[in-house]
Fold this sequence. Notes:
By secondary structure, the chain is of the alpha/beta class. It has 2 domains: about 5-175, Phosphoglycerate kinase, N-terminal domain (Rossmann fold, 3-Layer(aba) Sandwich), CATH 3.40.50.1260; about 180-380, Rossmann fold, CATH 3.40.50.1260. The chain has helices spanning about 35-40, 45-50, 75-85, 100-110, 125, 130-140, 170-185, 205-210, 225-230, 245-260, 300-310, 330-340, 355-360, 375-380, 390, and strands at about 15-20, 55-60, 90, 115, 145, 170, 190-195, 215-220, 260-265, 270, 280-285, 295-300, 315-320, 345-350, 370. The strands form 3 sheets. A 6-stranded parallel β-sheet has the order 3-4-2-1-5-6. Helix 12 (about 330-340) links the parallel strand 13 and strand 14.
Amino acid sequence: MFSKKTVEDIDVSKKKVLVRVDYNVPLDNELNVTDDTRIKLSLPTINYLIKNNAKTILMSHLGRPKGKIEPRFSLDPAAKRLEQLTGKKVKKFDRIFSPKIKEYIDNEMDYGEIVMLENLRFDPGEKDNNDELARSLASLADIYVDDAFGAAHRSHASIVGVTKYLPSVAGFLMKKEIEVLTSILESPERPFLAILGGSKVSDKIKVIENLLGKVDSLILGGGMTYTFLKAQGYEIGKSICEDNQINFAKDMLALAKKNNVKLILPVDIVVAKEFDSEADNKTVSIQSIPVDWMGLDIGQKSAELFGNEISIAKTIFWNGPVGVFEWNNFSKGTRSVACAVAGSQAVTIAGGGDTLAALKKYNLSSKFTHISSGGGAAMEFLEGKELPGVVSLMDK
């Protein structure tokens, strides 16, 4: 199913291996890692390289420093956490590349050891896919391993550029992500249900369009609901709406009907007088949204409707909360969906930062078959796009 070579298809023993990981992790005010999920996901590849006596050279981005050195985006906290998880010393450099770093890796570093370069995005050449930066990074190693699925949709120097200069293969996480997402697109156990939430239709145009040719049913929730309701002629009050996407919503409603896909929208809404965590709120039917109120969550009847559809599905993909789950007054809908999916007997896949944050909030992450590490990359893959970080790896 996975057509690219992996780290197991190449001899890494006594080799210098440059590994692109995704350590774009959240930090608190004291610069401690508050969620180490992405670091843990990289461990199978790192441990394999250690076991096979390779020199492991890690590189990642963190945050959006915009091509400038910003100490608050240093990878020092990630290196510290990786040391704790592996029990091995991680030598962290304060530069992305220098002759001294190359000298250390070539002549002082032992096989089985780990080093980490500084935040790639401190150099504007990373996002520009600068050839000089790519060549410099490649000069540190004999082999390149891409295990950063979360950045696979980016044509950056550390993702695409280096592959011109080194034998390039996938890590275990990259392989798993592509295999899982490919399986739900090509051979899902049916019924196949997708649940899409979030605030903007425009963020998910291509995903909705592509999935309407793949799924048996599609649940829409969150802010995008109101564009679809308005497209059907409902009053949506002050709810979020993309007026320039109303025609698209009408087209998708028609496409769902043509493809015999159940497109399920909420039937009742929790509305509030203003966008505030403590705002006055009430539950109304979609036919009765007051002109000066806004929708911030799905109601109980919608939660039951969604739950019934979830209960009969055999494959479920979920991206995007169905309400403002960060606020307790408007979190019941997302919690209800999360619990229903987690409790189902289906193959369950979740992706997207907000979705993962919700699952963590409700302690449900372990109940899912697969949690995708890359929201943006997963969505582009589900749009039917080729990911530059995958395309550039060696074919089997």
